[in-house]
Design goal:
alpha/beta, 11 strands, globular
């Protein structure tokens, strides 16, 4: 079915015009996921009964002209850390095997109320604590450019479901880059909203101080509409978005200290933004560098504080590399944790002052290309160094409390990331819509 290759908004318009039957499309996605050679490595479980029930209701609303919005009837996937009533939600971990919540996560409930169809739950990095997307405990989804390449994480299956046309869009979470990295490595658009812009109720936590919910999509328009649906708000107006007169900062060393392929793709993308009217400047911000060097233990400390007892009750159930990363937070003192957060708040304020006159800050979405899965599996040191490098650039947005979006550059597995001030989500999406046109 040709519609499976379309964006979520194109499908939504097709439903509204009577050219797409939500039931037929939902069945096509479900059947494709069942028959796909990597389907079981992308979907942890498919919710066929729920999906068809929701699709039938969307079909009837369309028939009688009472659709609930543009995306009513559009089938999407959900990362396996969003609670689904009566369906296992295990966050990619054997530690949570058999965990069945009684209610939907709030963002899923909002999406369901808006008429979206839940196709199922996608595989992910164990407890969302890695940017590579590799999970020997459950399944490692494929990268769209080859099953031997890391898919990016932790929303790995969410990205694969869209990239392989097994969902119109995917919903993931982003604590240090987990929406943007798999989006970049699979040539998608991924949006990380400002922290707390979308509800975390019913979302299995990693570090609630940094956790965010975000969409992985084919277009900026899809991201904007899904952001609005999950937050139960009006979508931002993207019409006539332009880069004329905008001012952007290319941030070093995060833009300059990257490997050759993502660096070249980024430079090409920046040139296209400049040609479309953006004024591009280059500089560094000491506050970011200090935060990246001194506050990383905030992640491990909060993650271990959240999951330590569960992990230590049965540590052998866990992938050892992820377990070891959690354990790095075991010895962080409470006084140090508080002092680091106090310092990070100061650094965030410094960053806001340094970037106040810019419309966006630009860096490559990842400093590297997807590494080889087999080598990641066999080489502990390689896994650690690649994971840290993979997360380096995206983590800037989380540490500074920003909203951020990655756009494809046109070169495989490379993205350009635009970061906006906290709370400027609608403005950033409008800017990204203009950038998307310039990059096409």
């Amino acid at each position: 079915m040709d519609w499976m290759w379309k964006s979520a908004c194109e499908i939504g318009r097709g439903i509204g015009e009577g050219r797409v039957d939500p039931v037929e499309l939902t069945e096509a996605y479900l059947d494709a996921a069942k028959d796909h050679p990597h389907g079981d490595h992308i979907y942890a479980r498919r919710t066929r009964g729920r999906a068809l029930s929701e699709a039938i209701a969307a079909h009837d609303r369309a028939k009688f002209g009472i659709r609930r919005g543009l995306l009513d009837g559009v089938p999407i996937s959900w990362k396996d850390l969003f609670d689904t009533a009566g369906v296992a939600t295990e966050a990619g971990s054997k530690l949570l095997e058999g965990r069945v919540p009684s209610d939907d996560a709030e963002v899923l409930a909002n999406a369901t109320h808006a008429g979206l169809v839940c196709l199922g739950k996608t595989h992910m990095t164990e407890l969302a604590f890695s940017g590579l997307g590799v999970n020997p405990s459950t399944a490692t989804p494929p990268n769209v450019h080859g099953a031997d390449l890391a898919p990016g994480g932790s929303s790995s299956g969410a990205a694969a479901s869209v990239a392989f046309c097994l969902a119109a869009a995917g919903i993931g979470s982003d604590t240090g880059g987990s929406v943007r990295l798999p989006s970049a490595w699979n040539d998608l658009v991924g949006f990380k909203p400002t922290h707390n812009a979308l509800s975390l109720k019913g979302v299995v936590p990693l570090c609630e101080s940094f956790d965010t919910v975000g969409p992985l999509c084919r277009t900026v328009e899809d991201c904007a509409e899904l952001f609005a649906v999950m937050g139960n708000t009006a979508p931002p107006d993207l019409r006539e978005a332009s880069l004329d007169g905008t001012r952007m900062l290319v941030l070093n060393p995060y833009a300059s200290d990257v490997r050759e392929a993502p660096g070249a793709a980024f430079q090409s993308a920046v040139e296209r933004l400049s040609n479309a009217g953006a004024r591009i400047e280059t500089g560094d911000i000491p506050a970011v560098n200090e935060a990246m060097e001194t506050t990383l233990s905030l992640y491990t400390a909060e993650a271990y504080g959240t999951w330590g007892k569960v992990i230590e009750a049965d540590p052998e159930k866990m992938f050892h590399r992820i377990r070891d990363r959690f354990r790095q937070g075991a010895d962080v003192k409470a006084a140090d944790f508080v002092a680091l957060w106090q310092r990070l708040r100061v650094l965030r304020a410094d960053y806001q002052r340094a970037t106040a006159t810019y419309d966006a800050v630009l860096i490559p979405s990842a400093a590297n290309l997807p590494p080889d899965v087999e080598r990641l599996d066999s080489d502990d040191d390689y896994f650690v160094t690649e994971n840290l490098l993979t997360l380096r650039n995206t983590r800037v947005g989380n540490l500074m409390g920003l909203c951020a979006i990655t756009l494809p550059t046109g070169e495989p597995s490379t993205g350009i990331m635009l970061m906006g001030a906290p709370g400027s989500d609608a403005r950033l999406l409008r800017l990204a819509a203009a950038a998307e046109k310039a990059l096409a």
